[in-house]
Amino acid sequence: MKEFNAWFVAADDPTERYPLTEVIYYSKSGGLLEVEHDLDALRQRSAEEWKHLFERRWMRTEWPYGSGVWGKKEWVCPILMNDNIVSMFEGGSNLFWAERLGAELGVPDMWIKLCGNSHTGSFKDLGMTVLVSIVKQMIANGKPIRAVACASTGDTSAALAAYGAAAGIPTIVFLPKGKISVAQLVQPIAHGALVLALDTDFDGCMRIVREVTADQGIYLANSLNSLRIEGQKTVGIEIVQQFDWHVPDWIVIPGGNLGNTAALGKGLLMLYELGLIDRLPRIVCAQAEHANPLYRAYLNGFERLEPIKAQTTAASAIQIGNPVSYDRAVRMLKRFDGLVEQASEQELADAAARADRTGAYCCPHTGVAIAATIKLIDRNIIQKDDRVIIVSTAHGLKFSRFKVEYHEGTLAQVTSTYANPPIELPPEADAVRRVLDEHMERIAQQAAVVL
Questions:
Q1: Averaged over 412-424, what is the pLDDT?
Q2: Structural Rg of the chain based on CA atoms
Q3: Which pairing describes strands 6-10 and 147-151: parallel, antiparallel, or unpaired?
Q4: Listed residue (398, 394, 341) closest to 370, CA to CA
Q5: Is the pLDDT of residue 111 over 70?
Q6: Which of 43, 69, 139, 355 is the most buried (most CB within 10 A)?
Q7: H/E element holding 445?
């Protein structure tokens, strides 16, 4: 049997190839390199054989295949030695049937893919396990890599610091000063990373880290490095596998630097090209109105990207005005008959609160995706019989300040439609009974309206 293989390739010249263990990020023409797999080798196994293999490995304990990423190792990074894989059992996150929320919105077959149920609380773990594992293999092979670095709005730095700590590899993170949550800031600090808080925004941090990683001894961990995409693409594969290899109608994903949008499409295309599915879903990329360069380009038919100065948004992880993965994301959106929608601060905050009232606990970025979904339902673009998957990119507990300010009524630019603050009472049974009676009466009235 022909060995499975993958390599870096230039998007505009398939003959320009590099090993995945080479320290390189750009093609000769200056574009981002992509990871390309030998699909002919992968086709040596039938679609049914791949399904059986993936099912046999799913969430088991055999190293490293119990990981949601490494259970698809041949499709992700077949050149890695298992001894060099750095994994924390990432992936395998549950699909939450948003039954009550979907019923309220008129689309009962609605699900939330909880990618925040991962080691560091975000989907960034999926890509970082691949990148740090490759770095560990390069170091084992004698490459003089001294550290791994990234610019981040929070979640990438947490994932890099955790995986670097597990591997014993020094990490450096560049964060925009005062623009990320305390929960996100403390993660890289706790894991021993060198944390540099720069007085700029994410795009400014990105500019600096690109300059710093021109030194071959400091490896770049941002998503312009396509190794990250290889891990993140397993989200799409997992979703289909969790539905017994049936394809949903829509997948809605929040987008900032847009690597996740590109990765989602890449995983789904591999399923399609290798015959495991016979159709593709439609993809929606949801952006915050305050950081919406892709949405603006979409309105102009993707003729050009005009970088913007991203404004402050509660969805801080996607507060990006010049996304590095724009071209690859646009290619995927066109391939998947995709849409781009935006959400205001009011819309994203209310959407997250509305979902929380039905059992979810949404980060603000998931709020952006839910708000975009609501808009598409209201315009009858998403139909009542469609199966809709909303990708939740981080755990809501990382953004508890966002929740507190919403329910206190102090969240900037937002009127808290669904606020539910605590009621302060004296320690008297009669006072408690009055409030309970009023509360139960309101619940009864609301139930009557729904019926």
A1: 95
A2: 22
A3: unpaired
A4: 341
A5: yes
A6: 69
A7: helix 429-450
Q: How confident is the model at residue 450 (pLDDT cuts 50, 70, 90)?
A: low
The 3 state secondary structure assigned to 107-138 is: CCCEEEEECCCCCCCECHHHHHHHHHHHHHHH
On the CB side of 166, how many CA atoms lie within 13 Å of its CA?
Answer: 19
Helices (H), 171-313: 182-190, 202-212, 226-232, 234-242, 259-273, 293-299
Token code pair at residue 215: 């030194």
Q: Is residue 134 part of a domain?
A: no
From the number of C-beta atoms within 10 Å of its C-beta (0-12, 13-18, 19+), residue 438 rates as: exposed
Q: In 3D, which of 345, 321, 294 has the Cα closest to residue 201?
A: 321
CA distance 398 to 419: 19
Name the phi and psi angles at 103, rounded to 5. -65, -40
Please give the Cα distance from 220 to 233 (Å, whole number). Answer: 19
CB 96 within 8 A of CB 116: no
Give the integer Cα–Cα distance in Å for 97 and 110.
Answer: 6
Q: How far apart are the first and last CA of the chain?
A: 61
The whole-angstrom separation of Cα 402 and Cα 396 is: 9
CATH number for the domain including 113? 3.40.50.1100
Q: Is the pLDDT of residue 449 over 70?
A: no
**CA dist 349 to 356, 365, 408, Å?**
11, 9, 13
Q: What is the pTM of this model?
A: 0.94
Domain count, the chain: 1
In a domain, 237, yes or no: yes
Q: Is residue 209 part of a domain?
A: no
Kind and range of the H or E element at 209? helix 202-212
CB 161 within 8 A of CB 192: yes
Structural domain containing residue 398? 95-120+229-408
Ordered alpha helix ranges (H), 303-361? 326-335, 345-356
Is 92 within 8 Å of 238 (Cβ atoms)?
A: yes
- pLDDT cut 90: percent of the chain above it: 89
Asked if residue 146 belongs to a domain, the reply is no
pLDDT band at 152 (very low <50, low <70, confident <90, very high): confident
> Tokens at residue 450, please?
């729904």
